[in-house]
Write a sequence for this structure.
């Protein structure tokens, strides 16, 4: 029974995650009108703007909440303590749920700063940026499947629990994108966050803060990866670029 409850929990969490992921595209891309003529309740530049400095402070706090949660709960030391409270089978799903809720908080409470910092109006530039925007999100999604999408978001763990099985220990692999860049998911996010024809003050704050967090996250994540995979990851790190898909340095 416990395994079935964990499976149901994991499926519900995955639905919440995927909805928050899809809405991130709407939010960051300022996609006010959805398919079917529906209007998005909130985008990064929609809503009534307030005073710039208080709005920027609120937005920075919202982004900080996500960054702290996302980094803290991913650390092995936290996981060891956390799994004394929650079953290991739902540890990943709970992490995904907390991250999704932090994202939803950003969407809900984000204070718009819509004044434009720069604007591209030529059709080729607007088209190129739109292509890059969607390509960035595509890279993110494809990269999760290149590793193990369902393990990354907790479904494989709860499915194994329901079947009374144990998820095998992750082995080191470098499929497709990972042969050219160590962190294609982060690369995809950076491309998506910066690819806009109209860069508002709020969007610029979002892009700067998330890009800064990406490099902090990479530092913390790679420390854990070296600890877990040892010399295998050290060699990989020396031969493949971190975030830019440049030719191998070996």
């Amino acid at each position: 029974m416990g395994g079935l409850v964990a499976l149901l929990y994991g499926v519900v969490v995955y639905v919440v995650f995927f909805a928050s992921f899809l809405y991130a595209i709407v939010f960051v891309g300022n996609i006010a009108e959805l398919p079917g003529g529906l209007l998005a309740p909130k985008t990064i530049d929609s809503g009534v703007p307030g005073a710039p400095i208080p709005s920027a402070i609120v937005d920075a706090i919202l982004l900080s909440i996500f960054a702290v949660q996302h980094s803290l709960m991913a650390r092995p030391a936290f996981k060891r303590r956390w799994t004394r409270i929650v079953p290991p089978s739902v540890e990943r799903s709970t992490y995904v749920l907390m991250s999704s809720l932090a994202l939803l908080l950003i969407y809900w409470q984000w204070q718009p700063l819509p004044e434009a910092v720069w604007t591209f109006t030529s059709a080729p530039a607007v088209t190129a940026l739109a292509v890059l925007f969607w390509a960035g999100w595509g890279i993110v999604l494809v990269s999760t499947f290149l590793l193990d999408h369902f393990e990354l978001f907790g479904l494989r763990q709860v499915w194994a629990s329901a079947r009374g099985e144990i998820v095998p220990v992750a082995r080191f692999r470098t499929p497709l994108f990972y042969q050219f860049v160590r962190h294609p998911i982060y690369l995809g996010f950076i491309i998506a966050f910066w690819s806009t024809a109209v860069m508002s003050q709020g969007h610029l704050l979002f892009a700067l803060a998330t890009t800064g967090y990406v490099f902090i996250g990479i530092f913390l994540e790679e420390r854990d990866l070296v600890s877990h995979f040892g010399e295998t990851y050290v060699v990989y790190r020396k031969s493949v670029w971190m975030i830019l898909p440049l030719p191998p340095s070996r």
About this structure: The longest helix spans residues 201-229.
